[in-house]
User: Fold this.
Amino acid sequence: MLGDYVSSFIVGGIICVIAQILIDKTKFTPARILVTFVTAGVILGALNIYDYVVDIGNAGATVPLPGFGYSLAKATIKEVNEKGLIGAFTGGIKGTAGGITAAIIFGYIMALLFNPKTKK
Assistant:
């Protein structure tokens, strides 16, 4: 069990290090880095490469943004195999609906609890 925590921490940390390197060494905006990570997760998930990362890193691989892309790819592939072309449009939504809903609900709760202010 401790090994799972350590491997999750290491894999999640590596993903964060890659993001930090992109922030420090490139002129990518944070939005482009986010899109790059999700797109990389989709591509690696579709090619079954990200499966190995998930096997090693567990939540350290599925929680960050590449994990979201991975979930999109896997759900879409599954839905296309079951329902055909229409699955390309419905699979990603079905596969990630829980995570998106949780993000919206928890974001709303935080907005109610705290008073956000703009930076000066």
Summary: The chain has a mean pLDDT of 89. The chain has one domain: 2-113. Residues 2-113 form one domain.
